[in-house]
Amino acid sequence: MRNFNKFKGWLLLRISNKKNIQFDLKKTSSVLMLRYDRIGDMVITTPVFREFKRAYPDIELNVLASKTNYEIIKNNPYVDKIYLNKTNILLDFFILLKLRRRNFDVCFEFDHSVVRHAIIRLRLINPKKVISVKKNGRYGINGNELKIYDFYTEKLEHSHFREIWLSILQPFNIVPLSNQYEIFYTEKQSLKAKDFISRFPKKFLIGINLEGAVKGKKISFNKFKEICTRLFKINREIIIIVISSPENEQRVKKNLSKMNLDCVIPAYTSKSILDASALISNLDLIITPDTSISHIASTFNIPVITIHENNIESYELFSPLSDWSRTIFSDSNNSLQGFSVDDLIDFAAEVLGDKCFEMKLLNRNNSNNVV
Predict the structure, then answer these.
(1) Confidence of residue 20 (pLDDT cuts 50, 70, 90)
(2) Please, which residues have CB within 8 angstroms of residue 116's CB and are 6 or more apart in sequence?
């Protein structure tokens, strides 16, 4: 295994070996940002798009996104063009050649460690300059040995990824004016969400999703039932809305029918993550084991309770950023096994007993009644 890793390191050094091209960043006319991973990563990166375009409105901003996360920026006014990555180099070969023909001046790559598929893609795209976060060593090589990268920005210690990724703009001398996330859903999606919640006037609306994209990040059905039952005992004026992906919708509905709790209902079918975002932006509290959902809640400053594996480093990088947020840690460093339902209920009781949220409910219900 050690020899194989040494071989991979040697191969990456060979692949990343490129000649230095003399190019002044001030003459940049087009950039490509590589963000072909998860939904939450794209949400956290939205301030980068806005702050770059604010500083350089005439530079074309392109994003290489994934089928999973491109919806987040589908309506983003700061992104000029989106290209779709298929996560497989062979399947992506033709799109990478297309990007190569675009002759981009600068590529931004957000990985903070040495990632093979990113290096291969960059080599095929062949921009004049590549900017990235300082790399952790891997395969026996140091990030500084990879000549494909022209500029490294520091990975700030004990910082959120939002700040780490915003710092990638430093070579362009951009000082961010705001670090707020942004998601743009349509008027139709907004009206659909408002119509749905209008069925529950004077109710406190709690959104819960049961599982994250990463294996092991899942609330079991038994714990979910306990959470719902105990929340209802605290406040009978609640409605618990279960948010799920389309592929899990039928399974969720089947489990909810077994619970036989009138206060627990499934959300309407979400055809895209923007449908879910529109709904989340109209709720009063989110409970989630999924960082993507917590980032969406943070975008709209919705109070959020997150359940996180026992990994403080990961939590620092991906923590929720709503003004009111609480996090419960499990006993395991790679799953949610052993998280405390008691702590979750205590945190929820804080919100349910907060007068300012009573005022928010009053304002929301009054606005719903305006003809």
Answers:
(1) confident
(2) 8, 12
CA–CA gap between residue 131 and residue 96 (Å, rounded): 18
The reply to whether 197 and 59 lie within a common domain is: no
Residue 178 lies in a domain: no
Domain boundary pick from 172, 196, 220 = 172
Phi and psi at residue 98, in whole multiples of 5°?
-60, -45
Question: In this structure, are residues 109 and 122 in contact, taking their beta carbons and an 8 Å threshold?
Answer: yes
Residue 210: closest CA among 197, 189, 200, 225: 225
Q: Which among 172, 197, 224 is the end of a domain? A: 172
278-331 residue pLDDT tens:
999 999 999 999 999 999 999 999 999 999 999 999 999 999 999 999 999 999
Q: What is the DSSP string of 263-322?
A: TEEEPPP-SSHHHHHHHHTT-SEEEES-HHHHHHHHHTT--EEEEE-S-HHHHHHH---S
Question: Are residues 285 and 348 in contact, defined by beta-carbon separation less than 8 angstroms?
Answer: yes
**Distance separating alpha carbons of residues 247 and 33, to the nearest angstrom:** 30
pTM flag (> 0.85): yes
Number of domains, the chain: 2
